[in-house]
Amino acid sequence: MAVPIALEAVHAGFPSVAQDYFSGDFSFDTNVITHPDTSFIVRVSGTSMTNAGIFDGDLAIVDRSLTPQDGDIVIAALDGELTVKRLISNTSGQPVLHAENSQFPDIQLYFDESVTIWGVVIGNYHPQCERATIRMNA
Amino acid sequence: MTSLTYDTSNVKDSANSPQRQFILADADSFFASCERVVNPKLYRTPIVVLSNNDGCVVARSAEAKKLGIPEGIPWFKIREEATRNGVVACSSNYELYASLSARMMHIMDSHFPHQHIYSIDECFFDVTGNTSELIDRSRRMREAVWQGLGLPISIGIAPTPTLAKIVSHWSKHYLGIRNVISWEDAMQRDPHFLKHIPVEDVWGIGRRLAPQLMSMNILTAADLRDSDSVMMRKKFGVLIQQTILELRGIACTDFSKSDSALDGKRTTQIMCSRMFSSPIRDPRDLHQAVSVYTQKALHRLNMQSSLCSSISVFCSTGRYNTSDISSHIRGTKLFPEPTNDPLIITKYAFEAIQDQIVPGAAYARAGVILQGLIDKDAYHPLDVFEAQLDNGISQALEAARQRFGSYRVGLGYGGIRAKGRLNQDTGAHWSMKRSHLSPRATTVWSEMLTVKA
């Protein structure tokens, strides 16, 4: 049988009731990242995805265990460079890497091209207060 | 010849009826594959990974092996030709490899019970099942690791760990198949394939024992299997008898006795040793190096909640020592009680060699070994001989390390850190030279991957 050990000396007066209920704060990480073994945090550089709410300097959470589906925002390895775009099929059913910014062209994917889908973006963190972002950029 | 009886007795009906099997999963060219995860430019490029100080080739991608680059060759000897052939050299990025290894092992652990992590890139599972079902599940595990991390693994399934190693090795090197292969598969492809496996490639034999076996005309895995196991035991000890029995399909490996599985916990010793990038002549610099290595080892000791009973420290002038003074010193200090107290341990560490340092010698490497490890929880000292339990210093150091990164704090000379990526170890001039280092994309915040939008 487990015998509870007093964690603090109890003085006269009301003891702290909260002590029995406190087992630590929830973690942002563990609630947002559902597959930690296959998830990667990456930094976004560029403006081609701004209409999807992903901005230059944002952090993106990438889960590689998810199989990419039409409409997902993905990280693709395109000629050896990692790039973030939306994966869609065009009118003729061909897969396309679509930029969410009209100033950037879509990228047609052909079978002979060296493209791999590296992972699926499950969310991004966009800092809103510069005073608070010092550690993030460290 | 008895070989056929052994072989058929093992494979009888095993595809349909459940039986004990061992699954070996090992990553293909693990270090090189890790480099590809963080740098997709290298997908089809021949890669070599260099040892500490960018000295020798310690790992090669399949493409680099095809070019005939041997393992262990000093990089400077092949640099020109290799570069002409498009070979890319990477400094060893152990922090990245350790992180991806932990993730890989964890993914695999969810696919089968009884995982035994054997090294950074391979693990065994001790399972019961029929082979066709195990093959299906192994394929799913392989796919999960490939999709989830981008790491390719090969899998061998056999009645013993030794045979699992052999089928996996044979499949890779002789068939060129990097996938899932079972003992039955291998036997169907070539019932005599053990005759093609050189005896030195058998798990546990190695280069030391192989010449002696070959002088007895035991040249292949099949020869070893058919040798007299009792006579071999008398000549070479019990381990070789176990290997022989394993080749015959009788499992003898007891994983519970070796270093523990899941957490990579060391049960005998923890070692940390490095070659310096430039030789050390000043005893104060040597003191600093020993302090740093001691604290690296202590970090691992604390990670696994152990105490240690003694410390050995060694320093030596290198093989390519140009001065005429050569010195190989080693000293051991026994602690009054098993301890994890960094103050006591770092103090003893330098004392262990202090008196033996040869003035003027150019030391090329140093290392520390923590020995006599015991579980912190398992240690019940008599009241009068209490363990030298650290009174919070190691937790404080650990917390600071978590908060500010390694090498920002430390004891004695161990905490010095300079700015700049390449001197990241400590910033001291003797720390490792690693000029082709990839980002530590999963463990260092400032080195995360960048994606182009």
From TrEMBL, chain A:
This is Translesion error-prone DNA polymerase V autoproteolytic subunit. One of its GO terms (biological process) is SOS response. The keyword DNA repair applies. Transmembrane segments: none annotated. Residues 8-122 form the Peptidase S24/S26A/S26B/S26C domain. GO terms for molecular function: DNA binding; hydrolase activity. It holds the Pfam family Peptidase_S24. CDD domains: S24_LexA-like. Belongs to the peptidase S24 family. The keyword Transferase does not apply. NCBIfam families: PRK10276.1. Keywords: Autocatalytic cleavage, DNA damage, DNA repair, Hydrolase, SOS response.
TrEMBL record, chain B:
InterPro entries: DNA/RNA_pol_sf, DNA_pol_Y-fam_little_finger, DNA_polymerase-Y, DUF4113, PolY_HhH_motif, Rev_trsase/Diguanyl_cyclase, UmuC. Pfam families: DUF4113 (PF13438), IMS (PF00817), IMS_C (PF11799), IMS_HHH (PF11798). Keywords: DNA damage, DNA repair, SOS mutagenesis, SOS response. The keyword DNA repair applies. Residues 22-206 form the UmuC domain. GO terms for biological process: DNA repair; error-prone translesion synthesis; SOS response. One of its GO terms (cellular component) is cytosol. GO terms for molecular function: damaged DNA binding; DNA-directed DNA polymerase activity. Transmembrane segments: none annotated. Belongs to the DNA polymerase type-Y family. Poorly processive, error-prone DNA polymerase involved in untargeted mutagenesis. Copies undamaged DNA at stalled replication forks, which arise in vivo from mismatched or misaligned primer ends. These misaligned primers can be extended by PolIV. Exhibits no 3'-5' exonuclease (proofreading) activity. May be involved in translesional synthesis, in conjunction with the beta clamp from PolIII. This is Y-family DNA polymerase.
